[in-house]
Hints:
By secondary structure, this protein is α+β, with helices and mostly antiparallel strands. 33% of the residues lie in helices and 25% in strands. α3 (200-213) crosses α5 (283-301) and α4 (258-274) crosses α5. The longest helix has 21 residues, at 343-363. Residues 1-19 have low confidence and may be disordered.
Amino acid sequence: MNKLSLTLIFLASSNIAYASSQTIYQIEQTSSHTLNVSVDRSKHPAETELVFRGASMGIASQVKNVMCDGLAVEEIKSGVWQMPATCQKLQWQIPLRKGDKELAANQQSIKSGSFMLLSVVSSLPQLQDAETEIVNITLPNVKTIFPKTDATNSIVLPSRANAPFFILLNPVVVDSITSENISLNYFLDRPEFATELPAIHSHMNALKWLNTIIPGRKNENFSIAWLGIAKEKMALAGAAGEDVLLTNYPNNGGLKFGKTMLLYVTLHEAFHQFAMQYPDQPSWAAESLATYYGIRAIEIASPNDPDNIALLQRFKQDGNRFHDGLVTINRKIKNGDRSEYLAFYTKGLAFWIAVDEALQQTQGKRLDYYLLKILQTKYDADGEPINMQNILHLSSEKWLLIQQNFLN
Ligand SMILES: [Zn+2]
């Protein structure tokens, strides 16, 4: 977020002309459900490759009809197109998916009414010789764009190493609140569904609570894009992008666990965001902590809501079906077997509940007291924590039991 805003301010204030190393992806609309991307290469033609990056992340490609000067460009292997040096005008199409049929977690470009979401990772393969990459949006009926464009309707793409980049076209700004260092914005695809969203103030209370146990950066900005989908298709997953979190809400009536489930997804992701400045952790540790604190935070957002308990029970129940421990599963995943990934959320939640109970019994302290130290724990190559028992001041017996039950 910060990097991008700074780049935009820099471009706007210094008013520099785009240098020749800049690649401009021009976005136009060809029909109601199709966008066209074109890149003018006439000033610096060179042989290069156009590469779709979503494949390694399991994201479906929405890149169709890659053409150069009217001729089809050869796809030399899946998701890689060979660009001839003679290419002057490169273009391709993005068929937009129907918003209410596509899970946010799939990170696809979608359309829903006048709202559109442009997902860079599914729709904008990138030129290997591009340095600065700019998306220029000239669509007739687009009035608002997030993130903000500059005076020429352009957005500079963040580094490819950053989180996925999403551009919202015509979102409805439902609500925006700021409290000290935290700001929270709700964007919605369809104005008529505003009542389906959680109360933004409750959401903010939970963020503030999370921030008391895990200090974030100076300014933490949470922008949520709420995307409607049939409740039968809902999943407990969103997609955290560079500037915005994509998450679904049910657009055809009530949902099991109600708004609790919506809050849970956003608070789980908020924990990841607050934890971003701490060292990387193995997946099992990062996901289990985000789940544990996501569940704790919904109780702050809506205290004593029976849906909170119901959701917790559901997680616990699902966790029971995994016989392997979390570190064992972490190792399997590293070797390519992702079949038990869900255990990180469910069994992982049960692990931290067990640790919290042990701490309360033996020391009268909660897990929160040790959280910052836990976030700095070192792990071996398999994901086994190296000195967790010492950090938590637990007896060998207690720790061994927890380790046997949950980790190994
Ligand atoms: Zn997560």
